[in-house]
Design goal:
The complex is a heterodimer of chains A (607) and B (290). With 607 residues, chain A is mainly α. Chain A has two domains: 230 residues, no CATH class; 314 residues, no CATH class. Chain A is built from 23 helices and four strands. Chain A has a two-stranded antiparallel sheet. The radius of gyration of chain A is 26 Å and the shape is globular. In chain B, α5 packs across α6. The radius of gyration of chain B is 19 Å and the shape is globular. Chain B folds into two domains: 197 residues, Rossmann fold (3-Layer(aba) Sandwich), CATH 3.40.50; 83 residues, Rossmann fold. Classes of the chains: A mainly alpha (607), B alpha/beta (290). The structure holds adenosine-5'-triphosphate and magnesium ion. Adenosine-5'-triphosphate binds next to β2 and α1 of chain B.
């Protein structure tokens, strides 16, 4: 991991000779300023930021950072590490295999952002700057100095020769870019696996911290720090290194991800947070199912949530709920099969006539069917139709599951950790997520998956290559429906009741068709981790920021537009898109077959 | 002009009879009969808009012909593209239609679709045959990439290939379906002379594999070098068919290319003039085939 840093440092020096940094400082002074600034910001977090405990997070104690101070602390520590690594300090060089200075700038901006936000929030909520104490000014000034210092550092890559003197905005944007890291030196397998495990451990910790944030100020600070921190780590080339490793040890990485996910409920003592986790998993699993339909086969389905509904209703009807009109109680496995099968049948019934349509028509028809499902569930109430679903009352009182004598409705003590009801369902849902991940991966990497992608790329050419377009599209549609139905059977139990209003096209509670599609697009179409990450973000942000519930859809729209403008491929780029970048970077470089090309070349969807 | 006619007992691979295609009032193809025998390379030429691509689309089931039938090795084909490919006719497109965001290797693997059987269950449960079939497909695909000289680029995205190589990849992808007849729609359009020469060699090599070839091309020299037989389509009708030299000298063909009614054509124009007209036609060849 450490091999290439010297060259990176050298090239930065060479390439930046003509380009003056944004803040004209000698680079030694700039770096010293960045180091000093982040150190000062760090010290400030140990001092009191305000005098009263009215602002949440206990910011009044000297010598013990709390709440938003912790975020500033973490951010400035990261800045400090990146800045010091720029000196070429031996043990730290591995931190910056890609860019050296852009990570400093990014993490410094993160510190400035979260500290500035904290100071603003304190002054605003408590009524005036007088409520700030010394520590707040120290950290704020430190953050500012660090950013100024970072702006004085030479840029990581030379300016585009076609535009060697961009304007200020262009220069700032350029200062945030960095070259790709060179290939890492191979470590022994166990060390690489350890790195993967550490990576997922950090991921789990950050995620659990985000879910566990207790007040919205902390969550906003968290978003700022993780947003900038994540970009900084990406620019430093660490993410690329990690994804190369996960691509190489794919199964290990998958296992590590699931172990980390299993650990999650044990880190939560609060049932409410475990419930968020379980709901995120449901949302994410359905999004991944939709990714088969949209991401692989390219069929725009705007009514996908109906399949979740079919599964949930089917499971609710056979759950033994006193309000169920059928009044039978299937064992869980049979209920799961019923739900999945019902969704499958529904998928085929809807798909068979509509999949002969192309593009826009399909989207409109599926949108219509999604609404028809909801309205039908509303009308099967004994008045406007036969009584099957109790209309808008839905089917409440769905009993908790009992699997092998293990009652999922009760808290259990496992290895000294309390596992709450939601924790139980979280783990059950995780099993289903694992199944869906496996189904996605295996189908994507097969003759069928290739045929789907071919149809997505060019349906006419695909049929001319011998692919029965209609049949394969129906297969994708039905498989997607079945996976959503599977998730629905668990959802019915997690939420105690199913009502038609849970399955809308767009609403404020996430699993709805619009948000599902957004999760897929935001995360990255055709990948596994993309929709999972996208769903987690799309669930967590509205859940944590309830004070702006009214503006939620507006903000959501703005966020999507920004994303499409700046990162159209989604947060996680498809392997093919990765390959594209990889290739354009390599076009004039001779083939280098001896190195572990497979690391990126064989990286399959979503690694 | 290397090895021509190596078909001692020539049986018809393709037998199209009375193919007619009307779009509303326009008759793009009118009662065309055409046979291609095993081991043959047949050329299909004609001015722009003559209906060549439309004829191909009728053969491959992309269009349902208004009249006429298409038979492959004696059996009449249903007008469904995937069934036509399944039967053994593969094609390339005039305006390249690769799967742009798939790798070169994956493109060829998609071409293997009809020759492999692994369904969804096999993929999900990784049934015993799955690995083996996948492995075999990959080997076959790599062989084809070697054959067309693209093996070194197997992991590149199709869209990043240079133009000439994209055309070759289309051929490799078509060959992957193990066809008995290959239909090539202007395989050298946009190629430089060396690339065109290489394409000729490639087509001969394909014929030597026992695959009959029907090729649309505007480059008359290419057709002369390559084809055992040439059919000329003008305004949807086949006006002449025969050996390349004969067709080239035929006054009706010359007239058609020069845009004069053939009755009144003096008939003394030479092949050179045809070529001149041809070159002009070539330079304005950016059609759409569907
Ligand atoms: N789908 C369609 N609908 C209506 N008219 C069509 C359609 N496809 C082709 N045509 C018409 O049929 C005629 C023949 O077109 P075609 O593309 O077959 O010509 P071509 O011989 O391949 O020409 P080129 O040498 O330019 O490729 C043209 O007049 C064209 O406009
Ligand atoms: Mg044409």
């Amino acid at each position: 991991m450490t091999k290439t840093t010297d060259t990176t440092v050298d090239t930065t020096k060479v390439s930046t000779a003509p380009a003056t940094p944004i803040v004209p400082l000698p680079s030694a002074a700039a770096r010293a300023l960045a180091v000093a600034g982040s150190a000062v910001a760090l010290v400030g977090t140990f001092l009191a930021w305000t005098w009263t405990e009215e602002f949440p997070g206990n910011l009044t104690v000297t010598g013990y950072p709390g709440g938003l101070q912790v975020l500033t602390l973490v951010g400035s520590l990261l800045t400090l590490l990146f800045a010091v690594s720029g000196y070429g300090v031996k043990g730290l060089r591995w931190l910056t295999p890609g860019g050296t200075n852009s990570p400093v700038l990014l993490s410094a901006l993160g510190v400035l952002g979260t500290t500035g936000y904290a100071l603003g929030a304190i002054s605003y909520e408590l009524g005036g700057l007088v409520n700030l104490e010394l520590g707040a000014y120290v950290s704020g000034a430190g953050a500012l100095l660090a950013v100024i210092g970072a702006l004085g550092l030479p840029v990581d890559q030379p300016y585009d020769p076609s535009d060697p003197h961009p304007h200020l905005w262009g220069r700032i944007r350029h200062a945030l870019t960095a070259p790709e890291p060179a290939r890492a030196k191979e470590l022994p397998s166990w060390a690489e696996i350890l790195v993967i495990a550490a990576g997922f451990g950090v991921g789990l910790y950050v995620f659990a911290y985000g879910i566990g944030t207790e007040y919205s100020e902390l969550f906003i600070g968290f978003l700022i720090v993780t947003g900038f921190g994540f970009t900084a780590v990406t620019r430093a080339g660490l993410l690329k290194r990690l994804s190369a490793l996960t691509a190489k040890h794919r199964n290990v990485a998958m296992a590590a991800a699931f172990v980390a996910a299993i650990c999650f409920p044990f880190t939560q003592t609060n049932d409410q947070y475990a419930l968020i986790g379980a709901n995120i998993l449901i949302f994410a699993t359905v999004a991944l199912g939709l990714n088969v339909v949209v991401g692989l086969a390219g069929l725009l389905d705007l009514g996908y949530v109906a399949f979740l509904g079919v599964g949930a209703y089917a499971a609710a009807l056979v759950s033994g709920s006193p309000q169920s009109t059928i009044g039978v109680q299937f064992p869980f496995w049979a209920a799961v099969l019923t739900g999945a099968l019902a969704s499958l049948v529904f998928g085929v019934v809807i798909g068979a006539p509509t999949l002969r349509l192309r593009g826009d028509y399909l989207a409109i028809v599926t949108l219509g069917f999604g609404e028809i499902f909801r309205i039908t569930m509303n009308n099967l109430n004994g008045n406007s139709g036969p009584d099957v679903t109790n209309g808008s009352n839905g089917i409440p009182n769905i009993p908790d599951l009992e699997i092998f004598g293990f009652n999922l409705g009760l808290s259990h003590s496992v290895l000294g950790h309390e596992l709450t009801r939601s924790g139980n369902y979280y783990l059950l849902m995780l099993l289903f997520t694992a199944i869906v991940v496996l189904v996605f991966r295996r189908s994507a990497e097969s003759r069928i998956g290739r045929a789907w992608v071919a149809i997505r790329e060019d349906e006419t050419a695909a049929t001319a290559m011998g692919i029965n377009g209609f049949r394969l599209k129906l297969l994708a549609f039905a498989l997607g429906a079945c996976l959503a139905g599977l998730a629905g059977t668990v959802q019915a139990h997690v939420s105690y009741s199913v009502t038609p209003e849970q399955y809308q096209f767009a609403g404020s509670v996430p699993p709805n068709s619009a948000f599902l599609l957004a999760a897929v697009i935001l995360g990255g179409m055709g990948t596994i981790s993309g929709p999972l990450i996208g769903a987690a973000l799309l669930y967590l942000i509205p859940a944590k920021l309830q004070f702006m519930a009214e503006y939620q859809l507006l903000l959501f729209g703005v966020a999507l537009m920004l994303l499409m403008r700046f990162r159209p491929e989604g947060l996680v780029a498809d392997r093919r898109k990765q390959l594209e970048f990889h290739e354009t970077g390599q076009l004039d470089v001779p083939e280098d077959k001896s190195l572990p090309e497979g690391a990126t070349g064989v990286a399959k969807a979503g690694a | 002009m290397t090895t021509t006619t190596t078909a001692p007992t020539s049986t018809a691979v393709l037998d199209a009879s009375g193919v007619t295609m009307r779009f509303g009032g326009l008759t793009a193809v009118r009662g065309v009969d055409l046979t291609v025998n095993t081991g043959e390379i047949v050329g299909l030429i004609g001015p722009n808009g003559a209906g060549k691509t439309t004829f191909f689309n009728c053969l491959t089931g992309l269009y349902v012909p208004t009249e006429g039938k298409v038979a492959y090795k004696g059996t009449v084909l249903p007008p469904k593209p995937h069934l036509v490919t399944q039967a053994g006719i593969a094609r390339t497109f005039q305006n390249i239609r690769l799967f742009a965001n798939m790798t070169v290797l994956e493109n060829v693997l998609v071409g293997r679709h009809t020759r492999t059987k692994e369904g969804l269950w096999s993929a999900l449960l990784r049934l015993p045959g799955f690995k083996k079939a996948e492995q075999e497909s990959r080997e076959r695909a790599m062989e084809l990439l070697e054959f067309t000289g693209l093996a070194a680029k197997a992991d590149h995205l199709a869209r990043n290939l240079p133009y000439g190589e994209q055309r070759k990849l289309e051929i490799a992808r078509a060959l992957a379906s193990e066809p008995g007849l290959l239909l090539l729609d202007e395989p050298t359009a946009g190629m430089n002379p060396q690339e065109t020469r290489a394409a000729e060699e490639l087509i001969f090599a394909i014929r030597d594999k026992g695959i009959a070839v029907l090729v649309i091309e505007h480059d008359i020299r290419f057709i002369m070098n390559l084809c055992d037989r040439v059919a000329v389509l003008v305004q949807g009708e086949k006006i002449v068919e025969g050996p390349a030299e004969v067709v080239q000298a035929d006054e009706r063909v010359i007239a058609a290319y020069l845009g004069e009614p053939f009755e009144g054509a003096p008939g003394k124009e030479e092949a050179a003039e045809v070529e001149a007209a041809e070159a002009e036609a070539h330079s304005t060849t950016e059609g759409d085939d569907k």
